[in-house]
């Protein structure tokens, strides 16, 4: 604070407090609505004093939408995406920063371009690929005449087929296939002093050794930031899981919410819907609260 | 920027890049190419091969009033929600940056909304803005028929915009606050010594210095409004009433997967891709300028 500005300070507090209410109110309303019974939740206006049915509603929502396994699925997927990103991006960044090979810039640009087109806009063909991941390779074999050749020589007709619908790999892999993390690592690797590399090489460390024993431990902060962001991002995915998981046993918590939208006919069971919403909201909120530092850092660094 | 010291065995180097390359080839380049191919052919959903139709898919889409309605809805949604989310976040970040008592609390709490999944917050707002229960019901009681997102397209659009802006206020706040905090304190203090007040300092020092962030967020908010809106629309309005909130990504989804019109959906995807690529190019040109700016 530079000078005394009592009036402005008053308005600053007022506006910030309004902003605070604006951000917190939806959480509070959801929690309160989740504690009412059917009659109270549909009262106009709804009472802002918590009701007594909180645990009952949570249990009902839990069983109606079968949230236990769905939350587990969400966790597996979010961890899978976060881990996949953290590992694969590190490998790729190491390759484009620490090696000189022909086509390096081409690889750099091939990866860079993936930043431009999010999954949502190429959703239909990506779905087709996941229905049979080997389709691209089959097509390549067909086009180059290799499958004809193989059929002539060995008599085996080449039919590559591997469907990933309703599987964790089908959920996770397409979400990992972007460049977001690669550039975060690249920026960091470029700041690692060359002297460190020289010293390691002088001590006889090869590329693998240097990567595993020096570079990775140094990038722990980056990993935490990237992991946090990617976990949240994956947890909050909706369109992709909705398409890929036609089978209930692989459905995600977030997509299951749709089951809880109250019917138009009959008394709307908002208390159950809000209890379910609260359960689904909570894990990412806990991650944000606990990992705030990494979350903010990762967000700004990946510009995601 | 390049490394001076590198490793010699470049075959190992390529091996490190292989997993990523396989992934992006299979799940990015192939589908993107496939989208282009589909958009130029007519595919039978139940098999039977593709017929080359040239630009016919684009022609039929661009002559379809529903599609233009969807583009208009997306642009209205993008403009209003981006404007709301950015202005509110800018004001809150500027005030938090004054570092009065309690600013740490705001710094923590104002970020929360961004962590929430779009469908979950959509569900919360569906309840809060429901015409028969929740809080808009109070308004309806005094003013019957004032608010009904189930019947009135403008109300539905307003609900979707409110839900989306709520989430992105948190996102924009993080970036604005980081930008404000990057401004050297001495600049502010020197200006104060010269007798400028808080408002004047904001207008002449802080605002010009954060224009790069404003521009960056503008592009990100618009592109996100095209993508992240899907979950909100699906839960809150399902594109209705009467297609009033049938935004572009939602239309691609419903045409492609519910209407089984792969070719039409692919052509729509291509148009959306071009739009997003154009925005991204604008952003990169700008990032170069930002580097120059410093």
Automatic annotation (TrEMBL), chain A:
List all membrane-crossing ranges. 7-34, 75-99, 106-124, 168-189, 210-235, 270-291
Q: Which PROSITE patterns does this entry report, sorted A to Z?
A: ABC_TM1 (PS50928)
* Membrane topology classification: Multi-pass membrane protein
Q: Which CDD domains match?
A: TM_PBP2 (cd06261)
Q: Name one GO cellular component term.
A: plasma membrane
**Which keywords appear in this protein's UniProt record, sorted alphabetically?**
Cell inner membrane, Cell membrane, Membrane, Transmembrane, Transmembrane helix, Transport
What family is it from? Answer: Belongs to the binding-protein-dependent transport system permease family.
* PANTHER family listed in its UniProt record: ABC TRANSPORTER PERMEASE PROTEIN MG189-RELATED-RELATED (PTHR43744), SN-GLYCEROL-3-PHOSPHATE TRANSPORT SYSTEM PERMEASE PROTEIN UGPE (PTHR43744:SF8)
Q: Give the record's subunit note.
A: The complex is composed of two ATP-binding proteins (UgpC), two transmembrane proteins (UgpA and UgpE) and a solute-binding protein (UgpB).
**The protein's role, per its UniProt record:** Part of the ABC transporter complex UgpBAEC involved in sn-glycerol-3-phosphate (G3P) import. Probably responsible for the translocation of the substrate across the membrane.
What's the protein here called?
Answer: sn-glycerol-3-phosphate transport system permease protein UgpE
Naturally occurring in which organism (per UniProt): Mesorhizobium atlanticum
Automatic annotation (TrEMBL), chain B:
Record field: transmembrane:
12-32, 71-96, 108-129, 156-184, 205-223, 265-287
One Pfam family from the record: BPD_transp_1
Endpoints of the signal sequence: none
Keyword tRNA processing (UniProt): no
What are the annotated GO cellular component locations? plasma membrane
**Chief location category:** membrane
InterPro entries assigned: MetI-like (IPR000515), MetI-like_sf (IPR035906), UgpAE/MalFG_permease (IPR050809)
Membrane topology per the record? Answer: Multi-pass membrane protein
Q: Which domain of life is it from?
A: Bacteria
- Give GO terms for biological process: transmembrane transport
Compartment list: Cell inner membrane; Cell membrane
Q: Any idea which UniProt keywords this protein has?
A: Cell inner membrane, Cell membrane, Membrane, Transmembrane, Transmembrane helix, Transport
* Coiled-coil segments: none
What function does the entry list? Part of the ABC transporter complex UgpBAEC involved in sn-glycerol-3-phosphate (G3P) import. Probably responsible for the translocation of the substrate across the membrane.
Q: What is this protein called?
A: sn-glycerol-3-phosphate transport system permease protein UgpA
State the species of origin: Mesorhizobium atlanticum
